[in-house]
Write a structure and sequence with these properties.
Elements lengths: L1 H31 L5 E5 H18 L3 E4 L5 E5 H18 L7 E8 L5 E7 L6 H6 L16 H12 L3 E5 L7 E6 L8
Parallel strand pairs: 2-4
Antiparallel strand pairs: 1-3, 4-5, 5-7, 6-7
Helix pairs in contact: 1-5, 2-3, 3-5
Length: 191
């Protein structure tokens, strides 16, 4: 029956998500045990690689993806920043599931100090003001996180902090999406 097919589909998706989470935790453990190696990193290349890796999910979800053509080059650890950006993109893809017009935007701004601030914005699951005020941080998993969506950004934040950077989020309310912003110093501390 149709109900059984839907149940099997949900269980299959949950198993796939769990497998991804376990893989992410293993990769994160390996990554965080490696020394920081600072090099010039083209964010355009890193984002392009993530898009290639996530192309099937983007196509399945019929997600409109907009990427700024002039993403900067950062002086940072390439595997770590690649992990963070891919992690946030995967989070955005999961967050827009079920939206009538799913959209993800990737771009950058210049801070007052002249440093690049990278953003990944989506129009999926968001948070209302009461949830934001009641939560210490949008990036911390909570008991009420029924979608399991806060784990990915909290892991990404740990990696950004390894680079002496900052990752934060803003949401205008439920179903208003979330904008993740991150910045890393151009010469993160080496281990």
């Amino acid at each position: 029956s149709e109900a059984v097919r839907e149940d099997v589909s949900r269980v299959s998706q949950a198993a796939h998500d769990m497998e991804r989470t376990i893989d992410e935790l293993l990769h994160l453990s390996f990554l965080r045990n490696q020394p920081v190696r600072v090099v010039d990193v083209s964010l355009g290349e890193v984002i392009g690689e993530s898009i290639d890796r996530l192309s099937l999910d983007l196509a399945r979800g019929r997600i409109a993806l907009s990427v700024a053509p002039d993403l900067p080059t950062l002086r940072t650890d390439r595997p770590r920043i690649a992990y963070v950006l891919r992690n946030l993109m995967e989070h955005a893809i999961r967050s827009v599931r079920g939206q009538a017009d799913p959209r993800i935007e990737i771009g950058w701004l210049e801070s007052r100090a002249g440093d690049p601030v990278i953003f990944i914005r989506h129009n999926g699951v968001g948070m209302d003001r009461a949830e934001q005020e009641g939560s210490a941080d949008l990036l911390e998993p909570s008991v009420s996180d029924t979608y399991g969506l806060a784990l990915a950004p909290s892991l990404a934040r740990q990696v950004v902090e390894d680079l002496a950077g900052r990752l934060w989020a803003h949401s205008s309310g439920p179903s208003q999406g979330v904008t993740f912003l991150l910045t890393v110093p151009q010469e993160p501390p080496c281990e």
